[in-house]
Design a protein that fits this description.
Elements (H helix, E strand, L loop, with lengths): L2 H24 L12 E4 L2 E5 L7 H18 L6 E3 L6 E4 L4 E4 L14 H15 L4 H14 L14 E5 L15 E6 L2 E2 L3 E2 L27 E4 L6 E4 L23 E4 L6 E4 L13 E2 L16 E3 L24 E5 L13 E2 L13 E8 L4 E9 L1
Parallel strand pairs: 14-15, 15-16, 17-19
Antiparallel strand pairs: 1-2, 3-5, 4-5, 6-7, 7-8, 7-9, 10-11, 12-13, 16-18, 18-19
Helix pairs in contact: 1-3, 2-3, 3-4
Length: 388
């Protein structure tokens, strides 16, 4: 693990803990907390600064190093094994064949001089030491996992070099640690031991952030959304697709409206198109025809969305006890379609509110379509049209 990554991990957790504590204690908003996450300010006056704000990079580095030395005493870092008679500084004697050398002090830009899984334990223990006690159990459990998978070479194997390999899933392996790796294995002479979890998952110290998972992006992209990748093996960030808000914006509909046309499915059965109005009785069977003397009983029409009256119907409207007013629901739009055949059709009642230039329709029009609505006082007729 890189030293810089270790510092960033610890500092990020300290900022998160400090910010959470300030919000809980003072009911503060994000705007009241400084960018570094440690200071609570009201009207540009500092009200509180969390103690974590005093922790410097040097403090973090010295704490990590102290925990590395602790791990050299508590377990056997395989990367620090030194054959007897070497010149390296020694932390302790292991057996008649091996010593454990002193790890190098952490330096920014370099790699922590200890086994990868022990580096993670050192970070957990550092956070615990600095006051984030929730990591104490994580460090303990992860150390137990390491010890259970530990195989120390014997004296006869002292000349054999140890090898390490890493994996994100315990199946596919590579020689160096990569971001997202969750397992490692120890081997010698091409013989490999069991896979050992790095973090172990769950309370054993698995991923604590979304971007630490192995099948998701490793960095956040502002303004992007998540979607499955082309191979269906993980998630990626992508541009948000524009939401279709109108009928014309859909991919399988006309791009413009055409006056007097009807909607129909194209011959290929793949889209909707505008076509001429059906001739004669074509398509009329789908409409419901009413042969009742008006005023029509609107209360029996369940949908109130399309009422069709054929040429045998006497159609009239009036604002009286015998007319439509008692039958129409207030503020409900009724869509009317009338087939006048050979007789004149018009709106003659002066109490009906309609466009000033409404024409008188004759039997030359195949059908007349209009909307009606009662507002409690007047009946309004609007959107009058005809076709043949």
């Amino acid at each position: 693990m890189k030293v810089n990554s270790a510092i960033e991990t610890i500092m990020s957790e300290l900022k998160f803990q400090a910010r959470s504590a300030i919000i809980e204690k003072y009911s503060a908003t994000d705007a009241d907390i400084s960018e570094d996450g440690f200071t609570y300010t009201v009207s540009e006056v500092v009200k509180y600064r969390h103690p974590y704000g005093a922790i410097t990079t040097d403090v973090i580095l010295s704490s990590i190093y102290r925990e590395m030395i602790y791990l050299c005493v508590q377990t056997v870092p395989l990367s620090l094994l030194e054959s007897k008679g070497g010149t390296a500084s020694i932390v302790r004697n292991l057996n008649s064949t091996w010593d454990i050398r002193t790890p190098n002090y952490p330096v920014a830009g370099e790699t922590l001089d200890i086994d990868e899984i022990l580096a993670q334990i050192a970070i957990y223990r550092t956070l615990s030491y600095l006051g984030v006690s929730a990591y104490t159990a994580n460090a303990k459990e992860l150390l137990t996992t390491y010890k259970e998978g530990l195989v120390v070479p014997t004296e006869d194997e002292a000349s054999d070099s140890l090898a390490f390999r890493f994996s994100s899933d315990g199946l596919e392996w590579h020689d160096t640690y990569q971001s997202g790796d969750m397992y490692f294995s120890i081997g010698r002479n091409a013989q490999w031991g069991n896979s050992i979890p790095i973090g172990g998952g769950g309370s054993s110290g698995g991923a604590t952030k979304f971007i630490q998972l192995s099948d998701v992006p490793q960095t956040y992209s502002a303004g992007k959304i998540l979607k499955a990748n082309a191979s269906g093996t993980g998630l990626v960030f992508a541009d948000e697709q524009a939401i279709k808000k109108t009928f014309l914006e859909l991919n399988d509909t006309p791009s413009t409206y055409v006056g007097g046309k009807f909607l129909a499915v194209n011959s290929a059965g793949s889209a909707v198109v505008f076509v001429d109005a059906p001739a004669g009785g074509s398509g009329q069977d789908a409409l419901v025809g009413y042969q009742a003397t008006m005023p029509y009983d609107f209360g029996t029409e369940t949908s109130k969305q399309f009422i069709t009256l054929d040429e045998n119907t006497t159609f009239s409207v009036a604002l009286n006890a015998d007319g439509l007013t008692p039958k129409m629901e207030k503020d409900t739009i009724y869509h009317m379609q009338v087939y006048p055949s050979s007789y004149l059709f018009s709106f003659s009642d002066t109490q009906i509110k309609k466009p000033a230039s409404t024409p008188a329709f004759t039997g030359s029009e195949y059908a007349i379509i209009f909307n009606m609505m009662w507002d409690g006082d007047d009946i309004f007729v609007f959107n009058i049209n005809s076709y043949n």
